[in-house]
Specification:
Length: 217
């Protein structure tokens, strides 16, 4: 699937299951065509579902950048299939906001409209691995909204970054133009409030470079 088409469907449709793929999720999604419009996402839900509104706002348990990236890598290696109504073996919903909820180790699967309650706005220059780029489409929240996990800059000009994301057909990690393939101006950077370490611009190199070296060298 071309990158632009995949991005257009980013937080969208459930991927069909394959016999040689990862184990099935809880609640098999229907098979849809790549041409189906929109980008639906699930509502806030407790771990393992069923979909529903969790009681009260989400908590922000402490974690580290290394732990966030490690959790994201586990889903990436497992190639967790996209499923708006499916829940992976760890209990998190298999859509874009469920993926971030998992990476941040939240106690529920949130959505793009609630992730900001456990995050604070930062600037592009402050981005570090473990932060997110979030677009919440307030006019039609279930369609078009998307969120990616920032994995570090791939160039000193800060025009491309490594994005971890839950999208059709499965979790992926790839170089992505800032801020995203589509609706780029609508994506805003946020940092998890429960982060147990600092972040921001480093004197040596571009933002994220030293954290990237620490995580992956």
């Amino acid at each position: 699937m071309p990158a632009l088409l995949a991005a257009t469907l980013a937080c969208g449709h459930p991927a069909p299951a394959h016999a040689d793929g990862p184990p099935p999720s809880h609640g098999a999604p229907p098979q849809l065509t790549a041409e189906a419009p929109g980008s639906p996402q699930g509502a806030p839900a407790p771990l393992y579902g069923p979909p529903g509104q969790p009681a009260g706002p989400p908590a922000a348990p402490p974690t580290t950048r290394e732990a966030i990236i490690d959790r994201a890598e586990k889903w990436t290696r497992a190639k967790v299939p996209y499923a708006m109504n499916g829940y992976w073996s760890d209990g998190y919903r298999q859509d874009c906001s469920g993926f971030i909820s998992m990476a941040w180790n939240l106690g529920s699967s949130e959505w793009t409209g609630s992730l900001t309650s456990v995050a604070k706005r930062i600037t592009k220059d402050q981005l570090e691995p473990g932060d997110i780029l979030l677009f919440h489409n307030t006019k039609d929240p279930e369609n078009g909204s998307h969120v990616t996990l920032f994995g570090g800059w791939t160039d000193s000009s800060r025009t491309r970054y490594t994005a971890y994301e839950q999208t059709r057909p499965a979790t992926r990690r790839q170089a992505t133009p800032y801020a995203y393939w589509t609706n780029s101006a609508q994506f805003l950077p946020y940092r998890y409030r429960g982060l147990a370490e600092g972040g921001g611009r480093h004197a040596d190199g571009y933002p994220g470079r030293e954290t990237w070296r620490r995580l992956f060298s």
